Amino acid sequence: MVASKDSGENLVSVQVDDHWISVPRGTRMIEACKQAAAEVPHYCYHPKLTSPGNCRMCLVEMGMPPRPSPGEEPELDADGHAKINWMPRPVIACANTVVDGMGIRTQSLLAKECRQGVMEFLLINHPLDCPICDQAGECTLQEYSVEHGNGQSRFLESKVKKPKNVEIGPRIRLDDERCVLCSRCVRFSKEVVDDDVFGFVDRGSHSVLTVHPDRKLENNYSLNTVDICPVGALTSNDFRFKMRVWFMRETKSLCTGCARGCNTVVGSREGKIYRQSPRENNDVNSAWMCDTGRMEYHQLENPARLTEPMIKRGKKHRTVDWPEAICRAARDLTKFKGEQLAIIASGRMTNEELYLTRTLAESLQPGVVDIVKREGEGDDYLSHCDKNPNVNGARKVLKIRSPGSKLKSIRKRIVEDKIKALLVIGEDLIDCGFTEGELSSLQCLVSSHIIANPTAKMSHVVLPGAGYAEKRGSMINATGRLQRLNKAIDPPGQSREDWEILHELNRAVDGCDGVTELADVFTQMASTLSIFKGLSLSRIGDLGVDVMDTGETVPLLEREARRVSEGLIVG
Amino acid sequence: MADPRYIAGKKPHPRERRMIFRNVDRSGWDASIATYRKDGGYRELKKALKMKPAAVTDEVKASGLRGRGGAGFPTGVKWGFIPPDNNKPIYLICNADESEPGTFKDRYIIHQDPHQLLEGILISSYAVGAKVAYIYIREEFPEGAVILERAIEEARTAKLLGKKILGTDFECEIYIHRGAGAYICGEETGLIESLEGKRPYPRIKPPYFPAVLGLYMCPTIVNNVESLCHVKHVMAMGGKKYAQLGTPRNTGTRILCVSGDVQKPGYFEIEVGKLTMGELIEDLCGGMKKGRKLKAVIPGGSSAKVLRAGETYTIRDGDKEKTIGLPDIPMDFDSLAACGSMAGSGGVIVMDDSRDMTWVLNNINTFYAHESCGQCTPCREGSLWMKKITDRMLSGGGVPSDVETLVSVGNNIAGRTICAFGEACAWPTQSFVAKFPEEFKKHTSRRNIGKALNPETKTASAGLGD
Does the pTM exceed 0.90? Predict the structure, then answer.
């Protein structure tokens, strides 16, 4: 592709490995190379952080057009570009920006020698303990070694000894011998989460990464340092020694820990989740997520998971098959109408589940429908104070105006014996202030949960549902972005995805609903609700679409945008 | 007045031209402001303050003064890099982190003539528009720091610091900042980081050119102690007159610090380029030690590339080129560069034929491996690797591939690091091995494996067969 000179004032022509491309003025050389499909290897460079230029892995050859003296015409090459004068010294591609007419060589002998040299330097004191290193398989030392390293070691000396297995915080361990001192973790902690806890001590080849002697790495974003560590120096206590990364299946999904809806990748193997890490989405979570959200997947491993539908007979529950459970639930619920029946759904449900709850409500005609409010502590980074991931969905789909506002009156009317039946989806009412006395006075209590809880214990029919990583669906986050939750693993035992349970209930109550798969639910929803108009589950894509203007902004993203505009980071 | 730091009355060699060192070892001299003023001190400051700042810079540009810290960059040109539309504070930093092995000139200025330095700093601050100047002094000069503090107090009392200096609108404060013992703090951006209270990791250039984004991201001029003192003499003589000292493009005087195997090592202030290496060694230093022959010279501090006796070099002489030997090299910036080394910081290290070059290189490698800041990969890992290879060679564990490996490690460092330390630590290896290949091969030949160098004498390869 040859860029024409008049392609826009803010575009400049750059030659990358003999091909001319045009990129915006101010583009970093490394990003220009990426656009030209000439990936430049790097360790310290991270687009979300400042560029210290310390690893020297991205050294490339650079040339500039000569500055002609006044009146002199520059010598042009066949493409009409000024001939490039190549500099004898290599330059780092990460921190330098392009200028018009610049030439970059990523494959020249000099560039290759530079990379080979740096690779060798990085490995001479490295323990080469890949067989027992958790980073193996996703380690840039390994990857670049294959491409840019030497087949043999020339290092005959003894290696520098450094601290190993250092507990630098509650969730992370440090192996200084594996560390390449790229300072990504130092910069992330300081620049993104204002916790300047990391530092280097000693010097030369004996330099080591450490945390401040009086402090620990314990902020709620600490595990992001493990993600950005290009090697196995920082490892997560939660993940280490559990699973080889190449065996894991990666599923793009969402964190449902709060209304932020951080984009994630869920790593699983054979029905078990081993880790959850952030996935870059510059409209939601940048490239980060909080530790709390990251650890949420452990709730799916709770030994008290409900795995079979149950019906209460006398004081005891007995397990039944799904048709019987659905049949019983439908039969019991349809006995009550209007004022006698209430539905308590959840802000943790997907839009599709909420929609099926809505159609169910249209059939059952309950006197009141509400969800449970879930307020908690938020912060100035990503964690939102609304701990329900889909309140906006509940507002739009289930028409909940003020979440949780009707719970008090529901309790009152249960006591007054006006409400006789309750359908509860995904919430433990005892946890929301209901008493066992109140719930036991109900003639019909049908509930769906993933983990056994007091409400389930009181229920006449218990329907085991699926956790967030065990199902598909969509949610609307705090800023009004519609995003997609994907299924990483199957729900355990006989438990089912909640949309299926609700779909079955709908059918049992109202006959055919025209739905055979989850995508149909979204299609129906899109034809009913204007905010989903023109969308389908697949059209949401991996990064989501904005469907509402909630007026909310993400402080972390705003700060990031400011640093981008100041030229400090690429973004 | 018996101060052990003075060798009062020691006469300079007649071939010296003392300006900066005029008062060093001078009889009846002391570091007080009274003595300095009695001798005409601070007259040049008065003169400068009557001029426009730009006119002072123009004089320095006209003088052709080149930085005496190592790189030899023209001082006036450096000052001119401050952006004209700047509206941030401007800082001047005096680099008194004199730590290049073989260099010992700034310490004498600080110890014996601190007010000359302060006057140079004040004139330079006036020229560049700095209201605050820092003297970054290395940790190893504790006495120097005390002397400078005292001098600053004296100058303040004499109203030469603070507001309304000498009754003009010029205001300036000078602060001493003491280092903590790291060579890299002499690198100007490392120094700035250290002054900001951080680890002295040199900054990447671009974008962090000190004249634009220096101390606290403000325009900053960093000059060497000796360079700043020269500014005073440029003011005294006028730029054009100063430029007549020395040789064209290599103007003024400079202090050479000679150490090693000569009869009389020491410091000598000469007109730049008016003396050859041979004259320096034979005349000023009294020749080589008895019965010894010149083997090699490191002409500009330990990082400069070594020159071997018997080599020939081609340098420019006017329009023509001429071939010269080591003793004929004029001691100036351009000639030493043309001979493949550098004038650097003026530290001339002379070695005679008793020296084992592998041991010499190992000594230098040990220093640089210890002083590498560790920020960027090639220097961090390469400097210690080179040291370990030469260690092993000396202890009798050398293998034939060592020589090649050693040079290639150096090649993989030089030109690929954030700061010039990369060159500083690689150039010795590159040059020593290139110029004395037989000595390195001796330590790595199969026949000599297991034969360690005599640790007592560290001399010659006597025990080693060819």
Answer: yes
